[in-house]
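> forwarded from #structure-qc
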């Protein structure tokens, strides 16, 4: 039995929201988000370490993307960016850095007061920037050296759109594999159901094959089956899967036809990667719910936030716009209930585990072999990291006493929300195009009006009559739930039932045959691993743990 603190069924009503509610919220927030990310310097420029960090997990030299579309236009001429953020100005902070209180001192000072550095003579003293690039234990992300003058690059997020780059193949696949592998939480953490351990072992076995260069078949199934996991673990999976799905949406939305040299909305790409995988779409909506909740929760904190571009008028305007966005997010439906997560004192390890795993996902971005993908991968992992920090480490009612939110975190959070918002937009349009065959909807500017159906659903929701099928259930279904069929589904005919069963028998037969064919390879991999362990033992160096186990596929995996 899972020992998770949360009974998945108990929180359904708190953490549920409908597609149409989120679409309506999206229609309300989209203009404000667009304005913030496209029109303000504060949110348009991002400083990050794009080229100087090696992949900490493997040698990625062979998986570099050489396409022009993979390249990022960094800002060579720093006069294009607000003076206060220039490396030259930032380097003045090195002086201030000398006076930077040490770790011990910092522990003594009220821990959450923003670290502020006063700048040189040519900068207004009331305008301060924070330049703490050290990792706080409450961070869910690895800070990307904004404070390390001269180390990072300034990038305009407006001029480097996230879209199709052509980056694919084993390099990209390896990164996604490794990201999903982070979802195999340690056996020590308090869930320990046999099934999740088996899944973890299965994943490990998969890795053994990869290590030995055995390319596994891309069967189009998602990389990590969502079975018997607790809410926190499931949320982790949904965040990364939703981020993956959102990236897929953007590359389908702006796809490049190499024959004609034109960009277009690729409906087939959408069908293949999203339409036929509703759970991926649902994970995008899940992320939308999570990010809007984080922005709403940061509302009070943002009231005392210093926006600093060196131009007080612009800063004032930026702040008003951010507060207006947070107000709108807060006025919308309650999209996500973080208060039910990590509640049981027994799951404190799990929170630590969750945070560390998310940090690893952020480290994995340095393994992405395409500059533009790496840029947006870093922005988005930092954005989700900031959202998680706000959700799990912030007190909603306090403004000055919360953990400090770095400029990069806030910029990443808002831009990540804007990306997911754009995905929601694109998916709505793609969905209508596929359902009606009318491709002209793809050229509609701005959010689609909430359709009659969605409107009716929203009204029903307000009256408390939303049907179960309209609702996005963000919680775990247990096995009984999974077997339950919604009563409103059309009944299958006898011949449909027959062919479905026949299909299952046929797939089982193929699976058995396949497992016999794979058996020698599995045995070989086990043999190599055992030899490796023996060799280490003989040399007297630590013997690696056995990481193989057998995985019995579920009905869906056949
Ligand atoms: C961090 C990162 C950023 C990227 N950014 C871009 C970009 O900006 N532009 C661009 O053109 N390419 C980008 N790529 C590459 C892109 O994501 C795909 O890897 C590439 O298009 C190849 O796609 P694929 O069909 O092989 O499947 P992939 O998308 O690589 O997926 C691999 C496997 O993962 C599973 N899977 C797919 N989607 C999901 C999901 N949502 N949830 C769970 N499992 C899933 C499936 O089993 C699939 O076969 C990026 C890759 C990474 C790692």
């Amino acid at each position: 039995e899972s020992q998770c603190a949360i009974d998945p069924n108990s929180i359904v009503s708190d953490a549920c929201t409908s597609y149409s509610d989120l679409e309506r919220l999206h229609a309300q927030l989209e203009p404000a988000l667009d304005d913030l990310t496209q029109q303000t310097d504060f949110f348009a420029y991002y400083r990050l370490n794009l080229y100087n960090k090696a992949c900490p997990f493997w040698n990625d030299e062979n998986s570099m993307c050489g396409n022009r579309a993979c390249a990022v236009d960094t800002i060579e001429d720093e006069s294009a960016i607000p003076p206060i953020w220039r490396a030259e100005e930032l380097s003045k902070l090195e002086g201030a850095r000398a006076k930077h209180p040490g770790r011990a001192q910092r522990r003594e000072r009220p821990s959450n007061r923003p670290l502020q550095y006063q700048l040189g003579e040519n900068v207004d003293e009331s305008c301060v920037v924070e330049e703490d690039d050290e990792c706080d234990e409450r961070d869910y992300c690895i800070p990307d050296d904004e404070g390390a003058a001269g180390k990072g690059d300034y990038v305009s997020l407006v001029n480097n759109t996230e879209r199709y780059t052509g980056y694919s193949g084993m390099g990209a696949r390896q990164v996604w594999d490794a990201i999903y592998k982070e979802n195999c939480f340690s056996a020590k953490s308090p869930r320990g159901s046999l099934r999740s351990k088996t899944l973890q072992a299965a994943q490990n076995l998969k890795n053994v094959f990869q290590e030995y260069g055995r390319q596994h078949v891309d069967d189009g199934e998602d990389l990590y089956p969502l079975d018997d996991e607790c809410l926190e673990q499931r949320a982790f999976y949904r965040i990364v899967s939703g981020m993956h799905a959102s990236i897929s949406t953007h590359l389908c939305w702006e796809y490049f036809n190499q024959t004609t040299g034109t960009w277009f909305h690729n409906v087939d790409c959408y069908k293949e990667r999203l339409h036929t995988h509703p759970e991926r779409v649902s994970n995008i909506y899940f992320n939308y719910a999570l990010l809007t909740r984080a922005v709403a929760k940061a509302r009070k904190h943002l009231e005392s936030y210093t926006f600093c571009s060196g131009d007080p008028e612009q800063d004032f305007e930026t702040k008003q716009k951010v507060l207006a966005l947070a107000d709108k997010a807060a006025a919308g439906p309650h999209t996500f209930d973080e208060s039910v997560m990590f509640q049981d004192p027994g799951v404190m390890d799990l929170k630590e585990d969750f945070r560390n795993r998310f940090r690893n996902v952020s480290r994995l971005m340095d393994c992405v072999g395409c500059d533009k993908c790496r840029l947006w991968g870093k922005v988005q992992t930092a954005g989700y990291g900031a959202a998680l920090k706000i959700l799990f480490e912030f007190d909603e009612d306090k403004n000055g006493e919360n953990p400090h939110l770095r400029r990069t975190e806030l910029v990443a959070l808002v831009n990540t929300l804007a990306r997911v918002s754009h995905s929601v937009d694109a998916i709505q349009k793609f969905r209508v195009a596929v359902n009606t065959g009318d491709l002209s909807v793809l050229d509609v500017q701005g959010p689609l009006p909430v359709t009659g159906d969605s409107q009716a659903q929203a009204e029903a929701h307000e009256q408390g009559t939303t049907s179960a099928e309209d609702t996005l259930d963000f919680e775990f279904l247990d096995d009984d739930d999974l077997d339950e069929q919604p009563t409103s589904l059309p009944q299958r005919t006898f011949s449909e039932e027959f062919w479905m069963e026949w299909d299952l028998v046929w797939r089982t037969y193929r699976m058995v045959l396949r497992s016999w064919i794979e058996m020698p390879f599995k045995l070989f991999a086990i043999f190599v691993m055992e030899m490796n362990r023996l060799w280490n033992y003989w040399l007297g160096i630590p013997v690696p743990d056995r990481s193989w186990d057998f995985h019995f596929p579920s009905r869906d995996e056949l």
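QC bot note: The chain is about 50% helix and 5% strand. The mean pLDDT is 72.
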